[in-house]
Write a structure and sequence with these properties.
118 residues; mainly alpha; 6 helices
């Protein structure tokens, strides 16, 4: 069912109001897009990557979520879910570290500016 989320993101990014617009743009039939919309069909990795790039999404995360959605057994779904959690947690930690570094640099400049004013 993850492909429906991708499809909705694509509609938003392209400012489309109808699924048939997305179908035409992506080169699919409206019947196929209807199957994706109802969760009966998942996009291929290639289509998911194309949509991710067009929407500015994290391509690695998109592929992992697609694999989780396509997994056939509860065990496989669980493994993909764990992989995604680790990936997202690592990405958030790296983002927080980067923001902390930016804040430290900004504070140093702020303190320097205060010293000049004194």
């Amino acid at each position: 069912m993850y492909s429906k989320t991708l499809l909705d993101e694509y509609l938003k990014a392209k400012k489309f109001t109808q699924y048939k617009q997305a179908a035409a743009e992506l080169g699919f039939s409206t019947a196929y897009i209807a199957k994706v919309n109802t969760g009966r069909e998942e996009f291929t990795e290639e289509t998911a990557l194309y949509i991710a790039v067009e929407c500015g999404m994290d391509t690695q995360e998109v592929i992992m979520k697609l694999a989780e959605a396509r997994a056939k057994t509860p065990q496989a779904k669980s493994v993909w879910s764990q992989v995604l959690k680790r990936y997202c947690a690592g990405r958030e930690a790296a983002s927080c570290a980067g923001l902390s570094a930016i804040a430290a640099i900004s504070m140093a400049k702020f303190n320097f500016a205060l010293c000049i004013l004194c």
